[in-house]
């Protein structure tokens, strides 16, 4: 009898975790992600401003990343960064030119709850609303040869496994799900000399 009760409790706990994850997160097809540039052609020494738009195309409110990336600082965890919008160049031969992302960790000396952290890292979009942002791309660091290129970009949501069971329960009380998964976008450009 004790064994059956233990198995039943484990099944209920697993179902509870799965339900909390489902209510806490929504898939990437709930948004559209588009990128654009001001012009079609750039000198290889110019900085390119890549504009992006994240639009809620679902029928319910949801949280999307507020910034290109976020940094978690002690005492919440060791310094770690999470990239939410990433972009790179790709030439006609398929070679990728990717620079990465840097951020600074400022230790506030206070433990913040997941909902406090997410209130800074996420923004609530109602159906039809959008969030716009810009990424500065430096073609000159790669010494890009003149030619046809594509700027590829990806919007990354959050991952359930980044949160504990307790944190997932807390996040599920924030009233709307958080974006998970990834959504790609691209725009063609020409690099001149």
Provide structural commentary.
This protein is an alpha+beta fold. The chain contains 3 helices and 14 strands. The chain has helices spanning 2-24, 114-121, 165-171, and strands spanning 25-26, 31-36, 41-43, 47-56, 62-65, 69-72, 80-83, 85-91, 96-97, 122-125, 130-138, 147-156, 178-179, 182-192. The strands form 5 sheets. Strands 3-14-12-8-9 form a 5-stranded mixed beta sheet, with no helix packed on it. A 3-stranded antiparallel beta sheet has the order 2-4-11, with no helix packed on it. Strands 1-13 form a two-stranded parallel ribbon. Helix 1 (2-24) packs across helix 3 (165-171). The longest helix has 23 residues, at 2-24.
Features:
single chain, about 190 residues, alpha+beta, Immunoglobulin-like, five-stranded mixed β-sheet, three-stranded antiparallel β-sheet, 3 helices, 14 strands, about 20% helix, about 40% strand, elongated, disordered N terminus
Describe the oligomeric state of these chains in a short phrase.
single chain
The number of distinct helices, counting runs of at least 4 residues, comes to 3
CATH class: Mainly Beta
Structural category is: alpha+beta
Count of spatially separate domains: 1
Helical content (DSSP H or I, runs of 4+): 10-25%
Q: Total number of β-strand segments?
A: 14
Q: Order of strands across the widest beta sheet?
A: 3-14-12-8-9
First and last CA, distance: 78 Å
- Biggest sheet record: 5 strands, mixed
CATH fold annotation: Immunoglobulin-like
Poorly predicted regions are 3-22, 74-79
Approximate shape: elongated
């Amino acid at each position: 009898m004790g064994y059956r009760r233990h198995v039943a409790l484990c099944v209920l706990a697993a179902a509870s975790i799965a339900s909390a994850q489902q209510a806490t997160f929504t898939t990437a097809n709930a948004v559209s992600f588009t990128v654009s540039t001001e012009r079609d052609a750039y000198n290889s020494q110019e900085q390119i401003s890549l504009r992006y738009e994240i639009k809620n195309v679902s029928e319910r409110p949801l949280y999307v990343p507020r910034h290109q990336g976020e940094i978690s600082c002690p005492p919440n965890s060791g310094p770690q960064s999470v990239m939410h919008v990433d972009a790179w160049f790709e030439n006609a031969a398929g070679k990728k030119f990717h620079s990465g992302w840097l951020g600074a960790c400022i230790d506030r000396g206070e433990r913040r709850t997941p909902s406090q952290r997410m209130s800074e890292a996420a923004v609530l979009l109602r159906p039809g609303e959008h969030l716009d942002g810009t990424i500065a791309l430096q073609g000159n660091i790669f010494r890009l040869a003149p030619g046809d290129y594509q700027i590829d970009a990806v919007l990354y949501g959050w991952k359930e496994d980044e949160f504990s069971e307790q944190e997932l329960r807390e996040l599920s009380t924030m009233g709307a799900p958080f974006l998970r998964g990834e959504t790609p976008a691209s725009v063609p450009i020409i690099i001149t000399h």
